[in-house]
Design goal:
Strand order of the largest sheet: 1-8-6-3
Number of domains: 1
CATH architecture: Beta Barrel
CATH topology: OB fold (Dihydrolipoamide Acetyltransferase, E2P)
Structural class: alpha+beta
Helix content: 10-25%
Radius of gyration: 19 Å
Number of strands: 8
CATH superfamily: RNA polymerase II/Efflux pump adaptor protein, barrel-sandwich hybrid domain
Number of helices: 1
Order of helices and strands: HEEEEEEEE
Shape: elongated
């Protein structure tokens, strides 16, 4: 009887973890600092590797300062164009697809 109770409990735990993992927000950080010249908009869908932030380059123009680490939808944006950021700054959160 204990085996069945334990097995039932584990099934419930794994099912709950699978359901909740769909709603986890993934933190996306800048890998380079500088003045923000472009950031992806709230609600946009991204694929892993897509540019999500650009900063001004010393030589002029823009350079990608962060790429999406997973596919998902932008749920929260924490920087705006014109902000000066440091490497490691949290840019946004993605809801994983």
């Amino acid at each position: 009887m204990r085996k069945y109770i334990a097995a039932g409990f584990l099934i419930i735990v794994f099912a709950a973890a699978a359901l909740l993992s769909r709603y986890v927000l993934i933190r996306q950080d800048a890998v380079m600092g500088g003045r923000v010249t472009w950031v992806i908009e709230l609600g946009e869908n991204v694929n892993e590797g897509d540019a999500i932030l650009k900063v001004a380059a010393l030589s002029g123009g823009d350079v990608v300062a962060s790429r999406a680490t997973a596919a998902g939808t932008v749920e929260e944006v924490n920087v705006k164009v014109g902000d000066n950021i440091k490497s490691g700054t949290m840019i946004l959160r993605l809801k994983k697809r």
